[in-house]
Amino acid sequence: MNTKNLISERLIGDTHGVELCSACAGRASSTIYSEVRDPLSLERFRVVACSECGLAFTLPRPSEIERYYPSKYRSYRPIVCRVLHALYAWRVRKWVKVNANANSVLEIGCGPGLMLDAFRRLGCRVIGIERNQEAAEIGRRGLGLEIVSTPIEQFPSDMRFDLILMFHVLEHIQDPLELLRECAARLSPKGVLIISVPNFSSWQSHFAGAKWFHLDVPRHLTHFTAGTLSSALERVGLQPTSISFASLEHDPFGWIESVISHATQRMNTLSRFLMGLDKFDLKIALAFLLASVLAMPALLLSGISWFAKRGAVIEITSTPIHTA
C-alpha cells in the first residue's frame, strides 16, 4: 500500500533537530529497540517512545518513503489473494451488519479494492483512495470501482461518509493525527471510523521484539497500542465505541513468520516469496515445512491472545463526539 501524499508528508521535528511525537509533540525519551532491520532494504532503524503520551515511532523518519515500497509490496500471488478476498468479504459483512446505516463508504489506502468491492456488493456507495496506480488500475478496470489518488484533505469540504475505513494504513502515515482530523471532519453526524493497526503491546510483539513481522520498519512509522490509538482519536474529537483484538488474516501468520525469523535469522522469508520478491529455493522450502508445523500452535495461541486482549492487531470503531 503506497501512502505517499495521502496527507502532507512533513517531518515532525523541532528547530534543533529533536524528534517530536506526531500525536502530542512530546520528545522521544527512551529507546525501545536500538536496531531494527528493514526486511526489504536491510537498512537499520530505531523504535523510540514519546516522553509524554507513550506513543512509539520509527527513527529516522525517511525523507523519501517511496523507495521503501517495492512495486511488489503486498502484491501477493493469486492463491493468497483469493484467501484474503474471502476473509475480507467476511469482515465487511460483519462491519455492515453492525453499522446498518453505512450507505456511503470511503476506504483510505484501498489497494486494488477487494474490500470496496465487498461493500458495493452489499449495496453501499463506495470510493477509495490509493496512490499506487498499478493497484488502483486493477480496481478500476477489473472491478469497475471509483478509486482516486486525491488526498482526503482535497475532497470537497461538504463531502461526508457514513463509514470511513483505514485497514492497516494509519501506521504508515507521517502525521497520523492530521489524517485522523481529516477523517473526523468528513464523517456524517452518525458516521463511524474503523481503524485496524498492528498492536505494539500484543503478546506477539513482546515475543518477537525487533524481529516482529508486523513491526515492518520503516514503512510502519508509528506503533500503536490500544491506549495510544484511543488517545489519538479523542484528541481529534472521536469517541472509541468498540475495540477488537482478533484478526484471522494477520495474527496466525504473524506468529509463524516471527518464529521463523527468530529461528533462521532470515527476516520474512515466507512473505518475500509470496510477494514474488524471492525465487523458490531450499531455504524457502524449509520455511514452508516449519510453517506447516507451526500452523496449529499459531492458530491456538492467536485465539487465546484475542480473549486476553493481546492479539497482534487492534481494530477500533469510533464516532464523532457531539457537544451541546
What does this structure look like?
The protein has helices at residues 78-98, 114-121, 133-143, 176-185, 203-208, 226-235, 251-264, 269-274, 282-307, and strands at residues 28-37, 44-50, 56-59, 104-108, 125-129, 147-148, 161-167, 187-198, 222-223, 238-244, 313-320. The protein is α/β, with parallel strands linked by helices. α1 (78-98) packs across α2 (114-121) and α7 (251-264) crosses α9 (282-307). It is globular and about 55 Å long.
SSE layout and pairings?
Elements: E1 28-37, E2 44-50, E3 56-59, H1 78-98, E4 104-108, H2 114-121, E5 125-129, H3 133-143, E6 147-148, E7 161-167, H4 176-185, E8 187-198, H5 203-208, E9 222-223, H6 226-235, E10 238-244, H7 251-264, H8 269-274, H9 282-307, E11 313-320
Parallel strand pairs: 4-5, 4-7, 5-6, 7-8
Antiparallel strand pairs: 1-2, 2-3, 3-9, 8-11, 10-11
Helix pairs in contact: 1-2, 7-9
